[in-house]
Amino acid sequence: MALPQDRAAELPRAELPLAGLTVIELHAIGPVPFAGRLLAQLGAEVTRVSPPSDPGLGVRLGPQFDLLNSGKQSIALDLKAADGIERLHQRLAAADVLLEGFRPGVLERLGLAPRSLLERHRRLVIGRLSGWGDRGPLAARAGHDINYLALSGLLLAIGERNAPVPPLNLVADFGGGAMHLVAGVLAQLVRRSISGAGGEVTTSILAGTVGLSPMFYGMLAGGAWQIARQDNLLDGGAPFYRVYRCADSRFVAVGALEPKFYAQLLRVLELDRDVDAARQYDRASWDDIATRFEQRFATRSRDDWARAAAGVDCCLAPVLDLREAAADAHNVANGLFVATPFPQPGPVIRFADAA
Q1: Could you say which of 169, 176, 231, 334 would form a disulfide bridge with 145 (CB–CB 3.0 to 4.6 Å)?
Q2: Mean pLDDT, the chain cut into blocks of 10 residues (355 residues total)
Q3: For 280-288, which contacts have Cβ atoms below 8 Å and span 24 or more sequence positions?
Q4: CA-based angle 178:120:39, to the nearest 5?
Q5: Which residues are catalytic?
Q6: Does the predicted model carry a pTM greater than 0.90?
Q7: HSE of 350 in the Cβ direction (CA atoms, 13 Å)?
Q8: Domains, the chain
């Protein structure tokens, strides 16, 4: 399948925005490696530093499957030994960024407190990501995505009526922690380009998760959001914004929020004569409309509904599995996946020089 014509205008790797930038990533799991991968995709040279006793997922699973660390160099250093610390300093002398995801105080106990690091490496940008934050009763505690999501208030809002459902580890680890860490590091790099001095950037997975939620807190305060799950516009409560099972037990996702898209959806479903489009936001009608939609979608397969909606702005999409997504024609046309050595996400941010 031919790629879009403007592919030819993309920058080669040596000209990507972060080309020439050197990043040292201290061993961690989840969001810090994801942040390092993103910086590498933007052109940075990333070196992952692991303890000799824990070489990471690449050894346990196979390096070709350790996608969070693909595109990185890897070295083993014992940071509990003076020689390991000195070898790290040698690396930092030529580095632009240090990423770390230890619990609060661990970096300091290793003799790598940011203040002393910046005294020795003035231009270094230190990006720090903890789980719970560096203060408060939970600061030193262990946790994972589901735990941070729980304390943020968001987990209770996600799932079906009878129980919350963890949305993989995409929200807290990657969307919350890693993306805010990367944003902070890039902002500090911009500041360094002006001042000439590096600095420390600190956030947490919990903080980053809370940082994703202002819209919902505003809606809650304004009376437009309910605490109960599946009782709201964007959580599956509205019949025009939810997932439906089809005749083949696969699913379609419907997101017809605006009236013009909702009217088109009713036409695709051949319900435009039975359902009053003007009552779309009448909550009293939602249960009845949802039942009608459930019954209608159950009459045809997922792909039949996708074909029926093709070319129509009704905001209906087939719910694909991971393998299907990698082979989907639209995703292929946009170069979202690469095929070697197996289907996997490719770079998803594109750059081109000004004409």
Answers
A1: 169
A2: 41 89 96 97 97 70 87 94 97 98 96 97 98 97 97 97 96 98 98 97 98 98 97 97 98 98 98 96 96 98 98 97 97 93 92 77
A3: 280/240, 286/237, 286/238, 286/239
A4: 25
A5: 144, 173
A6: yes
A7: 12
A8: 5-211 (3.40.50.10540), 241-319 (3.30.1540.10)
